[in-house]
Amino acid sequence: MQPDEHRPRSWQDPDVVERVIRSMRSVAVVGVSPRPDRPSHQVARYLHEQGIEVVAVNPNLDELFGRPAYPSLLALPRPVDVVDVFRRQEAVPPIAEQAVALGAGALWLQLGVVSEEGARIAADGGLDVVVDLCLKVEHALRR
């Protein structure tokens, strides 16, 4: 079966989704907004409220939820379990490269974020990859 170009099934393996959700303790949210009405903020807040360590990655933020924010993944002091991306698809390949360099466990591209190149970079670097699914929704379904 060929993945359709809008929703690549090859990056939505239920076993991978389950493994990532079950094992995550820390999540870097790339492109998180300080505005509560934005989906990135809502996902970050949900994860934070679930007891997951949320690391904000946004060069325009100093902090989120009382914790420091970082300008890029490479500025993080240590690896995270999941890199959750809320950026346009053209920004994904360098983020995937940074996630590999950081030693992250997984690259998760949020609903509507599709980058085959970024997914391949992350997978080739040994990361689990999920594309075009919402981390908040998938976590809520599996708790």
Low-confidence stretches: 1-5
Sheet with most strands: 7 strands, mixed
Instruction: Tell me the span between the first and last alpha carbons.
Output: 30 Å
Q: SSE order, as H and E?
A: HEHEEEEHEHEH
Element layout with pairings:
Blueprint lengths: L13 H10 L2 E5 L8 H11 L3 E5 L5 E2 L2 E4 L11 E4 L6 H11 L3 E4 L6 H9 L3 E4 L3 H8 L1
Parallel strand pairs: 1-2, 1-5, 2-4, 5-6, 6-7
Antiparallel strand pairs: 3-4
Summarize the structure.
This protein has 143 residues and is of the alpha/beta class. The chain has helices at residues 14-23, 39-49, 92-102, 116-124, 135-142, and strands at residues 26-30, 53-57, 63-64, 67-70, 82-85, 106-109, 128-131.
How does this structure look, described?
This protein has 143 residues and is an alpha/beta fold. The chain has five helices and seven strands. The protein has helices at 14-23, 39-49, 92-102, 116-124, 135-142, and strands at 26-30, 53-57, 63-64, 67-70, 82-85, 106-109, 128-131. A seven-stranded mixed sheet has the order 3-4-2-1-5-6-7, sandwiched between helices. A hairpin with a 2-residue loop joins β3 and β4 (67-70). α1 crosses α5 and α3 runs parallel beside α4. The longest helix is centred in the first third of the chain and has 11 residues, at 39-49. It is globular and about 35 Å long. The N and C termini lie far apart (30 Å). The model is unreliable at 1-5 (pLDDT under 50).
